[in-house]
Design brief:
Blueprint: H1 12-17, H2 26-36, H3 47-59, E1 70-74, E2 78-83, H4 97-116, E3 119-125, E4 131-137, H5 144-148, H6 166-176, E5 181-186, H7 189-206, H8 210-219, E6 220-221, H9 224-230, E7 234-235, H10 246-252, H11 259-271, E8 275-281, H12 286-306, E9 310-313, H13 316-319, H14 321-330, E10 337-345, H15 358-361
Parallel strand pairs: 6-7
Antiparallel strand pairs: 1-2, 2-4, 3-4, 5-8, 8-10, 9-10
Helix pairs in contact: 2-9, 3-4, 4-12, 6-12, 7-11
Keywords: Flavoprotein, FMN, Oxidoreductase
GO molecular function: oxidoreductase activity
InterPro entries: Nitroreductase-like, Nitroreductase/BluB, TAT_signal
């Protein structure tokens, strides 16, 4: 799903390989990403161009492996969002849960953008997971969360370890509530270590699966040129790693992908976080419920961004089917399906990921 930035634990490979790339081209990538994230001024567009503006905001949402697994169909006074199943990730997401969560994130952005441009957006979810969004004129509303859309990112970097005030946690939880989700806050050391144990168990399962590793490597982008050419995927520079020539990196990367290295990184991430929010829902709700999870997560992410916070996802305990039940029980979620594990805190921004052009996502 939304946003989970898996990163290669290159170790010495990257330290030595950076010189092979000639230079670290993260700056080139970031300049392009910033241009892509410029939203049109409210009231500056109308007609079909206004619809394209709403789609632009929607595409700035997170998606699993940054696959951007959506398609948009523009009507006269409507927009349809469809899952792009050619971009599904069957190894990490065999039931398409993350795919539909990603659609929910995009829908939330679109609804906020519509209000900013004087339109009320009313999504209706079909049985096949397609979402028809009717648009009608309304008084313009420029919400704080809309302004946070271009700033929101998920970061694999460490946070500063400082706790958040109780009032901040309440605000985040209140913002994300609704859409059939249950939120569980974990911000004490003992329970955060239990989250880490579950993450480690998930990593052991996933990194022993060749199909999972192959799929992950498929979506990695090893330098700015490769990232720009595809406009999608996980650029290593977004995780603070130097670039490598793709021809070399793809030959060597599997030697450095391991459950142990990923768990060490997760330990640093969790122990530096202010806390974790577990998002859960009715496991039987299917795509409609998962879209609701995405909308709730995106509200949480945008509210956190507006408050000057960073966040990222540590989802192995909810991606490995055999671990979901024990993970839910450990955190008092009963029969609910744990959907997302979101760590939150204060930290430095990392480079932003790229997006494909609108022409590639509008039918």
């Amino acid at each position: 799903m939304p946003t989970r930035r898996r990163v290669m634990s290159y170790g010495a490979l990257l330290a030595g390989g950076a010189t092979l790339a000639g230079c670290d081209d993260t700056g080139v990538q970031q300049a392009t990403a910033q241009l892509q994230r410029r939203l049109a001024l409210p009231g500056s567009v109308d007609g079909r161009e206004r619809l394209r503006t709403l789609v632009h905001a929607a595409t700035l949402a997170p998606s699993s492996h940054n696959t951007q697994c959506w398609r948009f169909v523009l009507g006269r006074d409507s927009i349809r969002i469809e899952p792009d199943t050619t971009r599904r990730c069957p190894a990490v997401d065999p039931d398409d849960h993350h795919l539909f969560v990603s659609l929910g994130c995009a829908i939330e952005n679109l609804v906020l953008a519509a209000l900013a441009h004087g339109l009320k957006a009313e999504p209706r979810i079909g049985a096949d997971g397609r979402v028809d969004i009717a648009l009608a004129p309304v008084r313009q509303q420029l919400a704080t969360r809309y302004m946070a859309i271009p700033q929101r990112q998920t970061t694999r970097g460490p946070f500063d370890g400082r706790p958040l005030p109780a009032a901040t946690w309440r605000q985040l939880e209140d913002t994300a509530s609704g859409d059939g989700v249950t939120l569980r806050l974990v911000n004490d050391t003992a329970r955060l270590e239990r989250v880490l144990d579950a993450v480690a168990a998930g990593h052991r399962v996933q990194f022993s699966d060749a199909a999972f590793v192959d799929e992950l490597v498929q979506w990695l982008r090893f330098d700015a040129g490769e990232a720009a050419a595809s406009g999608d995927g996980l650029f290593v520079g977004c995780s603070g790693r130097p670039s490598l020539p793709p021809w070399l990196a793809r030959r060597l990367v599997r030697r450095f992908l391991s459950a142990g290295a990923e768990t060490d990184l997760a330990a640093e991430q969790l122990r530096s976080s202010a806390g974790v929010v577990i998002v859960a829902s009715d496991g039987a709700a299917g795509p409609a419920g998962w879209i609701g999870v995405g909308r709730a997560f995106q509200r949480l992410a945008l509210e956190a961004t507006a408050a000057g916070l960073q966040l990222s996802l540590l989802n192995p305990p909810v991606e490995v089917a055999a671990l979901r039940g024990p993970f839910a029980a450990a955190f008092g979620l009963g029969a609910l399906r744990p959907d997302l594990v979101v760590r939150i805190g204060r930290g430095a921004r990392r480079p932003d990921s790229l997006r494909r052009p609108l022409g590639a996502v509008i039918a």
